[in-house]
Structures are given as C-alpha cells and as structure tokens.
Design goal:
Largest sheet: 4 strands, parallel
Strand content: 5-15%
Radius of gyration: 29 Å
Structural class: alpha/beta
Number of helices: 14
Order of helices and strands: HHHHEHEHEHEEEHEEHEEHHEHEHH
Shape: flat
Helix content: 40-55%
Number of strands: 12
C-alpha cells in the first residue's frame, strides 16, 4: 500500500505535478483559438502552435520551484490550509518565472494562453492534492487503522510527545495517557511503570512510546520484556541528543536499527533538493567554465609549467578526508615552505594565510583576486564530495586543533562558497570563525544557498579578503 509520508509518494507527487503542467499547457493551447470568438481577446491563428520547447522548460521550472518550497515534504504541511498556502506561493513564483522565460525567448506566445495555462495548472495541481487527502483520510478513519498511544514517562519529553500527537489529526493517532511512577499530578497518568501490562490490555493500546530520561534507561529492558506477549508497537523516544555531533537519527546498520549520532544536519528531502540544485547549476556552469579553465591552464603553463592543478587533502562531511581540486597559484614547493609563512597571533592561534605570501605566483595573485583558482571544484561538486554552498573544507592539521563544538561544522557537506566567504573570507581565518558555519547549519534552506551564491558574486567582484 502506498503510504502518504514516503519517498514513493513524493516521487508520485512530482510525476503528477509534471503531468499537470504538461496537461495545462496542452489544454490552454487547444482553448486559445476557441477564445477568438470573444471581442476582448486578440485574434490568433487556429494553426498557431505552442513552442515544443515549453513542454520541457515549463515542467522543469515548476518542479524545481516546488522542490525549493518543500512542497513534496508531506510532514512539513500536515494541515490542508498550510499545504495550500505553500502550494499557492510556489505557483505564483513559478508563474512569474515562466513569464520571464517567455519574455526573454518566445514573445509570440499569447498572453491569454499563458494566463489560461497558469489557471488550469493551478486547478489541476490543487485538485489531485485534495483528492489524495480525501483518499488517505478515508483510509485512516477506518477502525482497523486507529492507533491508541500510551506514553511511558510523563516528563518534559513525554509531554512534548503528547502535545505533538494531539496537534495532528490525520494520522489516526490518539493519545490515551501516561504511565509514570512520579507524575501523579499530571493529567491522564493511568498507572505506574509496574502496571504497564494491565494498562495496555485495559485501554486496548496499539503503540507504546517510551519517553524516559537518560537516567532511567537501565529500566528499558524490563519495560520491553513485560510487553513481549502483547501485540503492541514499541517506540523509544531518545532523550540524550546532547551526545550527537549535531543531530541523532535511527538507521539500519547491517539490518540492525542503530542510533546515528553523526547524522547530517539536513534531512533527506533537503539533501535531495540541494543535490539536484548543485548538479543542475554545475552542469550548466561547466559549459561556460571549460573555455575559462583552458585559458587559465595555459597561463599557468607559460609562467611556471606543470602541474596545473593542485590537489589538497581537506576534511569534508562527518570528518571524511577527500582531495580538493584547485588551480595551482603558488610555486611548486609551496607546502615545504609553509613553516616560513605560518605565524602565531597574540592569542596563540595559528595564522596560515598572509596578504603578501611570497610563494604566490603572478598568475596566482590574479586567480586568487577573483577566486578563479576555485573553479576546478566544480568537479568535486559533481562528484558529490562538495556542494555549491556550505562550510569551506578545512585542512586536516588545523582540524586537529579544533575544540569539540567546532566539529559541528562537519554536519553538512562542505561548499565552494558559504556564509564565511561573504562575511570576510581571508580577513577572518576560517578555523577561528566557526560560528559563521554554525549559523549556516542552524538556518539552512535552499533560499539561503541562493542568497549566499548571489552575495558571493558581489564579494568576489569587490575582492574583499581575497588573498
């Protein structure tokens, strides 16, 4: 059975939206000649054909914008009013973007046809969503699908779970009560921990959520064992997130469910959107970058010979080491001379970049001034070891000096540019300003990525902190 909150349903939703855009465009093309009979519409020829390219361009634009608005994240828009509001906003942006495409390319397309297309597509995408909601609601309202939830532990974690269950209405969940030895003053405490089996039987519980504090985890085995013969689903709400690098999730490891204390700070949906965005932009950008890269390679060859590229070990997501591509901007034995330029500031911090580094070549200075030495990292991005936007990958020997809190910057993929670059670059040594990366992680969205990319262009042009 297809589940609403699943990857398969998200993929089906993408397919239905793409189909709706195609159908809306096709229907509007058929309806437009028929509208000639009305005097307030400009007459168009019956044989006028909608450009075939639009049947590719429009679905891509609409789906990318829907992805950016997280329209396919079912858990984000539980209420129909929230989903419709987000969907309407996405349609508005998609319509404006499509109009811009027409203005810059196919100006002969009728404006009335475009308006009809937007209205029809909006109606089609709203209609299938409402039908799907009605279908899933009818499935969840059957008695066999009702789930009665008992929460073990009436502390802050247990109360948070109760409030969350009570706030949603279309998953068939009903909060029945708590079981706790110390929470008698809290409403709906049905008994102590020793009475779990009786409470489960009496109240026809289908799901038991264990929400105990970390100090009570030794009791877990006894609690689970007392219900081993009862047909209930048992869940454990984790109460020790502070052990995590940034976020804790449960994953299957060798077919065994285990805690992942170093899960990415971005969820699977955000990661999918980010990856699609990276590949799309880099694939298009590579077409323009290749001629520039050829000229840069020639300039490096003429000044200082091979090698043209410089591969440097950097620390990426979750602390993994990878090779980062750059154009070589220093003399060939630059790393052997690192100790001659490295300094220690008054606070004992390592400063490894100087404004007038004697190892940088003439071509290298120009490349660094406009950040052209970073262009080969397009291949890192396409290969998946980096992203367009994220914390800059740091050198391993500097990471060895990190404080534990600084390691949270490895909770997302490293980036070609990031919040640090647009707020200072080399003027603010990266390893001394980890708070910039943590700000990005805590406030991540695809819109923040787009904003950083736009501001990066300005930061490169003015050359602030580029050396």
């Amino acid at each position: 059975m297809l589940r609403r909150f699943s990857t398969n349903f998200a993929l089906l939703s993408i397919f239905l939206d793409g189909l709706s855009v195609l159908l809306g465009l096709w229907l509007s093309s058929i309806l437009r000649p028929w509208m000639n009979q009305f005097s307030f519409f400009e007459k168009v020829a019956d044989w006028q054909v909608t450009p075939k390219a639009l049947y590719i361009i429009f679905p891509l634009i609409w789906l990318l914008i829907f992805l950016a608005f997280s329209i396919y994240d079912g858990t984000k828009y539980m209420r129909v009013v929230d989903e419709m509001a987000a969907h309407s906003g996405a349609v508005f942006i998609a319509a404006i973007s499509s109009a811009g495409i027409l203005y810059l390319s196919f100006r002969e397309v009728s404006r009335a046809l475009f308006v009809v297309f937007v209205v029809l597509t909006y109606v089609l995408t709203v209609t299938w969503r409402l039908v799907v909601r009605l279908y899933f609601r009818s499935q969840q309202l059957t008695p066999a699908r009702k789930r009665r939830v008992l929460v073990v532990g009436a502390g802050s974690l247990g109360q948070r779970i109760r409030d969350q269950i009570n706030s949603i209405h279309d998953r068939g969940l009903t909060f029945v009560g708590f079981v706790d030895d110390d929470g008698r003053e809290i409403d709906k405490v049905l008994g102590g921990k020793g009475e779990i089996k009786q409470v489960v039987t009496k109240h026809k519980i289908s799901d038991v959520v264990i929400a105990l504090p970390y100090s009570a985890y030794p009791e877990l085995g006894q609690i689970v064992q007392c219900m081993e013969k009862d047909p209930v689903q048992i869940w454990v709400a984790l109460g020790f997130f502070d052990l995590a690098l940034y976020k804790t999730t449960i994953e299957n490891f060798a077919d065994i469910p285990m805690l992942d204390l170093r899960a990415s700070a971005i969820d699977n949906y955000q990661r999918m959107v980010k990856r699609v965005f990276d590949v799309l932009i880099c694939t298009i950008g590579l077409l323009f970058a290749l001629p520039v890269m050829a000229l840069i390679s020639l300039a490096i060859m003429l000044e200082d010979g091979r090698p043209i590229f410089f591969l440097q070990k950097r620390v990426g997501e979750n602390g993994r080491i990878f090779s980062m591509f750059k154009f070589r901007t220093m003399v060939k034995n630059a790393e052997d001379l690192q100790n001659q330029v490295e300094k220690i500031d008054a606070d004992g911090n390592v400063i490894h970049k100087l404004r007038d580094d004697p190892r940088v070549t003439r071509v290298g200075k120009f490349l660094r001034r406009f950040s052209l030495d970073e262009v080969p990292q397009i291949f890192n991005i396409l290969g998946g070891t980096m992203s367009l936007v994220g914390p800059r990958p740091e050198m391993p020997y500097l990471v060895d000096k990190y404080q534990p809190w600084q390691r949270k910057r490895f909770a997302v993929p490293p980036g070609l540019t990031g919040w640090w670059q647009i707020t200072g670059r080399s003027d603010k040594p990266m390893h001394l300003h980890t708070e910039d990366d943590l700000y990005y992680i805590q406030n991540y969205s695809i819109w923040l990525d787009i904003q950083i990319l736009i501001r990066t262009v300005w930061a490169v042009l003015i050359g602030r902190g580029s050396y």
